[in-house]
Design a protein that fits this description.
Helices cover 45% and strands 16% of the residues. It is of the alpha/beta class. It has one domain: NAD(P)-binding Rossmann-like Domain (Rossmann fold), CATH 3.40.50.720. It has a 7-stranded parallel beta sheet with strand order 3-2-1-4-5-6-7, sandwiched between helices.
Amino acid sequence: MSLELKGKTALITGATAGIGRAVASTLAELGAAVVVHGRAAERGSSVVEEISAAGGTARFVAADLADPDAVHKLAEAAGPVDVLVNNAGVFQFGPMLEATAEAFDLHMAVNTRAPMLLVAALAPAMAKRGFGVVINITTGAVSTPVRGGGVYVSSKVALDYLTRVWADELGPSGVRVNAVAAGPTRTRGMQARGADLADTLGRTTTALGRAADPREIAEVVAFLASPRSGYVTGAVVEARGGAPAHS
């Protein structure tokens, strides 16, 4: 096992399930000391125990990312961070004409504002050290209109744009910022919206004809976090299984 991130600290938001949990385990395998963020202490403890049992280092910090004060406290509790993975997100689907102000504000708060606040809190110290990596988990749906996904996808479009802006602002200091646009992935959140939803989307909307396993997305994040991607910044890397051709 290559310990490319040995001596580094990684904060992964939304790391108690799905893609975030897979990312936390994968980065720990690469030697990073992982800060596992979530809202449920029991689920957080489970991730920490799993990483520790595999020989890794991890600790859990709880925070409600919809609360700006809680986001600041999360940054303080995490301490100096070398790798920040903004993975946590909410996704509620429905027609745009029925979207409420509360739903819109929640998506923007968790999916866009929280990453903005965490980067503002943690990136300056990365810049001073001359090293740092920020990886934002977005969605492959930004390139194709998705029925019912207007509010969710809008929040991720904003995060894609911020990725490019941060890359420009932080690049001269040695901090790299990229995004991973994930396709349909078998996660608890997808299952909650339909037991076969991820697989159905995988069959109908990807060139590979299947949904992703969270570990497959985590491996892309690991590449972007590692020195192997040292000349990659400002990129939105698609991990969406390819786009099928239309007749």
